[in-house]
Write a structure and sequence with these properties.
The chain is an all-alpha fold. The protein has one domain. Helix content is 81%, strand content 0%. The chain is built from 13 helices and no strands. Helix 3 packs across helix 4 (72-88). The model has no long low-confidence stretch (mean pLDDT 79).
Amino acid sequence: MELSKRRNIWFVIIIGFIIFAVFASQIGIQRLLDLINEVNKPLLLLVVIFNLLNLLAFTITWQLLTSANISLYKLFKFYMAGTFINNITPTFGTGGEPIKAMLLGAQTGKSKAECFASVISQRMVNMVPFLTVGIIGLVLMFGRPGITLNFWEITGLVFSIVAGFGIYFLLIYFYMYKDKLSSFVHSSIRFFAPFIGLMKKGFDHIAYSEAVEESINSFHGGLKDIRHNTKDLLKKALLFSYIGWMFDILAIYTIFLAIPGSHIHVSVLIITYTISMISGWLPLFLPGGLGIVDGTMAGLFIFGGVPVEIAILATMLYRLSSYWFNTILGAICLGIALKKK
C-alpha cells in the first residue's frame, strides 16, 4: 500500500479516537459503557444486516448501469474496495470511484472510460432517492402538531436540502457539458495548487491538470457507450437505489429500537439523516465526513428532542456500522481484489 494511503488510514484512526473521546466525555465513559451493555444485541445484528443489504442494493444498481458481464459477488467486492478508498481519502467522497472503474475494467476488459462512466452514473442515480427522502422528512416534520422552529432553524433545514439539490443539478450540468466540467476542474486545480503543494511536496499542477483532462475525455467518451441502457433498466436501477436508502434508514431506526427507553419521531430521524449525509460532502479535507457527520447527527438528534446520552450512543452505533464496518470490509475486499489481479 502506498505511503500516502497508510497516512490516510492513521489519520482516520486518530480522528476516530478523538471523536470517541469527545462523545465519551459528554456522558462519562462508565455511563457510556453501561448504556452499551443495555443495548439489545440481536437488534444490533439486524442493523449490520440492513447495512449489508444497503450495500448490496447499491451494487445491484451499479450492475444494472454497466454493460459489463460480471457476477454480483465480484462487483460487490469492487464496490466495497471503492468504499474503503472513499472513507479514507478526503476527496468529496469520490476518491474510490476510479478504483471501482479500474477493478471493473481489469476484470472484464471493458474500457476505462465506459467503466468510469458506469460508476458515476450509479452515483447520480443514487442522489434521486436520497433527495426524495429528504423532502419526505421535511413534509413529515412540518406536518407534526405543535412544531415550532425559529428563523435560523428553518433556514438551516431549507439550506441543507437546497444545497443537496444544487450539488445534484451541478453534477448533471457537468455530466452533460464536458467543456464546462473541464474549465471548472482546471480552475479548481489552479486555486488549490498552493495548498496542495504545502501538503504534498513536488506537486506539479500542470501535469496533474493534463491527467485530469485525459480522465474527463475518457469519462465523457464512456457515457456514449452506456446510453444503450433502456428505460426499464434505468427504472430498475432507481428502484434498487430507493431500496438501498430505505435499508440505511431502517438501520438507524433499528438502533433506536435497540436502545432501551429511546424514542424518536420518524421526521426527526429522516431530517437528521439527510442533513448529516449532506454535511459530509462539504469538508473536502475530512475523509468520509468523519467528525462532521458524527457531530451534525448527534447535534440534530438532541435538537429534535432526543436525550443527549441516547443521541450520542445512537450516533456512535450508526457510524460504527455504516462507516467503520464498511471501511474494514472494504479494506479486505480491496486486498482480495488486488491479490487476484
